[in-house]
What does this fold into?
Amino acid sequence: MIEQFSRSEKLQILLKTIGTDPKKYLDEEIVQYVERFQPSQNCEGATKGYFSIISHICYYRPDLEHLLMKIALRPLYYLGVEDASVAIKWVQFYVSDTSDNYYTSKQGDIWIKESLNSKQNIVEKIFKEIDLEDNVE
It folds into this structure.
Protein backbone atom coordinates (compact mmCIF):
# COMPACT_ATOMS: atom_id res chain seq x y z
CA MET A 1 0.00 0.00 0.00
CA ILE A 2 2.68 2.47 0.99
CA GLU A 3 4.74 2.06 -2.19
CA GLN A 4 1.93 3.62 -4.24
CA PHE A 5 2.78 6.97 -2.62
CA SER A 6 6.40 7.01 -3.78
CA ARG A 7 6.12 10.64 -4.93
CA SER A 8 6.11 11.72 -1.30
CA GLU A 9 8.87 10.23 0.83
CA LYS A 10 7.58 12.02 3.93
CA LEU A 11 4.11 10.57 3.44
CA GLN A 12 5.56 7.07 2.95
CA ILE A 13 7.54 7.34 6.18
CA LEU A 14 4.48 8.63 8.04
CA LEU A 15 2.32 5.74 6.78
CA LYS A 16 5.00 3.21 7.78
CA THR A 17 5.52 4.74 11.22
CA ILE A 18 1.98 5.48 12.34
CA GLY A 19 1.17 1.85 13.06
CA THR A 20 4.03 1.43 15.50
CA ASP A 21 4.17 4.97 16.90
CA PRO A 22 0.85 6.77 16.30
CA LYS A 23 1.83 9.88 18.26
CA LYS A 24 5.28 10.36 16.68
CA TYR A 25 3.99 13.13 14.41
CA LEU A 26 2.16 16.26 15.47
CA ASP A 27 -1.42 16.58 14.25
CA GLU A 28 -0.42 19.54 12.07
CA GLU A 29 2.39 17.54 10.42
CA ILE A 30 0.06 14.70 9.51
CA VAL A 31 -2.55 17.05 8.07
CA GLN A 32 0.14 18.91 6.08
CA TYR A 33 1.60 15.72 4.59
CA VAL A 34 -1.85 14.62 3.44
CA GLU A 35 -2.86 18.08 2.14
CA ARG A 36 0.36 18.52 0.18
CA PHE A 37 0.02 15.19 -1.59
CA GLN A 38 -1.97 15.42 -4.80
CA PRO A 39 -3.06 11.89 -5.70
CA SER A 40 -4.78 12.80 -8.96
CA GLN A 41 -5.82 15.66 -11.23
CA ASN A 42 -9.44 14.50 -11.26
CA CYS A 43 -11.95 14.38 -8.43
CA GLU A 44 -12.59 10.64 -8.53
CA GLY A 45 -8.91 9.73 -8.44
CA ALA A 46 -8.18 12.33 -5.77
CA THR A 47 -10.93 10.96 -3.53
CA LYS A 48 -9.69 7.40 -3.94
CA GLY A 49 -6.11 8.46 -3.27
CA TYR A 50 -6.91 10.57 -0.23
CA PHE A 51 -9.17 7.94 1.33
CA SER A 52 -6.60 5.20 0.79
CA ILE A 53 -4.21 7.39 2.82
CA ILE A 54 -6.51 8.74 5.51
CA SER A 55 -8.25 5.45 6.25
CA HIS A 56 -4.89 3.96 7.26
CA ILE A 57 -4.10 6.99 9.42
CA CYS A 58 -7.58 7.21 10.98
CA TYR A 59 -7.38 3.57 12.04
CA TYR A 60 -4.52 4.56 14.35
CA ARG A 61 -5.47 8.21 14.95
CA PRO A 62 -9.27 8.53 15.18
CA ASP A 63 -8.76 11.94 16.78
CA LEU A 64 -7.83 13.26 13.32
CA GLU A 65 -10.85 11.87 11.46
CA HIS A 66 -12.66 15.17 10.95
CA LEU A 67 -9.61 17.06 9.65
CA LEU A 68 -8.48 14.25 7.37
CA MET A 69 -11.95 13.37 6.11
CA LYS A 70 -12.44 17.00 5.12
CA ILE A 71 -9.39 16.80 2.86
CA ALA A 72 -10.56 13.51 1.35
CA LEU A 73 -14.22 14.48 0.93
CA ARG A 74 -13.59 17.81 -0.82
CA PRO A 75 -12.95 16.29 -4.29
CA LEU A 76 -15.95 13.98 -3.89
CA TYR A 77 -18.08 17.02 -3.08
CA TYR A 78 -16.74 18.73 -6.21
CA LEU A 79 -17.67 15.59 -8.15
CA GLY A 80 -21.26 16.35 -7.14
CA VAL A 81 -21.74 13.99 -4.22
CA GLU A 82 -23.43 15.92 -1.40
CA ASP A 83 -25.32 13.14 0.36
CA ALA A 84 -23.38 11.64 3.28
CA SER A 85 -24.73 8.10 2.86
CA VAL A 86 -23.90 8.13 -0.86
CA ALA A 87 -20.39 9.40 -0.09
CA ILE A 88 -19.80 6.64 2.44
CA LYS A 89 -21.05 3.95 0.05
CA TRP A 90 -18.89 5.42 -2.74
CA VAL A 91 -15.77 5.24 -0.59
CA GLN A 92 -16.58 1.73 0.64
CA PHE A 93 -17.04 0.52 -2.91
CA TYR A 94 -14.09 2.21 -4.63
CA VAL A 95 -11.33 2.47 -2.05
CA SER A 96 -11.39 -1.12 -0.83
CA ASP A 97 -10.77 -2.39 -4.37
CA THR A 98 -7.11 -3.45 -4.57
CA SER A 99 -7.26 -3.74 -8.34
CA ASP A 100 -7.29 0.05 -8.69
CA ASN A 101 -4.32 2.43 -8.68
CA TYR A 102 -5.14 3.50 -5.14
CA TYR A 103 -6.04 1.07 -2.42
CA THR A 104 -5.70 1.07 1.32
CA SER A 105 -3.99 -1.12 3.90
CA LYS A 106 -5.66 -3.92 5.86
CA GLN A 107 -6.11 -1.47 8.73
CA GLY A 108 -7.51 1.19 6.40
CA ASP A 109 -9.90 -1.34 4.93
CA ILE A 110 -11.13 -2.20 8.43
CA TRP A 111 -11.66 1.51 9.17
CA ILE A 112 -13.60 1.97 5.92
CA LYS A 113 -15.77 -1.12 6.42
CA GLU A 114 -16.33 -0.87 10.18
CA SER A 115 -15.92 2.75 11.28
CA LEU A 116 -16.94 4.85 8.30
CA ASN A 117 -20.60 3.79 8.53
CA SER A 118 -20.89 5.52 11.89
CA LYS A 119 -19.47 8.79 10.51
CA GLN A 120 -22.55 9.97 8.61
CA ASN A 121 -23.05 13.00 10.88
CA ILE A 122 -19.40 13.98 10.47
CA VAL A 123 -19.65 13.67 6.68
CA GLU A 124 -22.80 15.82 6.65
CA LYS A 125 -21.08 18.46 8.77
CA ILE A 126 -18.00 18.43 6.52
CA PHE A 127 -20.11 18.88 3.38
CA LYS A 128 -21.81 21.87 5.01
CA GLU A 129 -18.42 23.33 5.95
CA ILE A 130 -17.10 22.90 2.40
CA ASP A 131 -20.23 24.46 0.95
CA LEU A 132 -19.96 27.41 3.32
CA GLU A 133 -16.24 27.91 2.60
CA ASP A 134 -16.83 27.80 -1.16
CA ASN A 135 -19.70 30.27 -1.03
CA VAL A 136 -18.00 32.92 1.11
CA GLU A 137 -16.87 35.79 -1.05
Remarks:
- The mean pLDDT is 90.
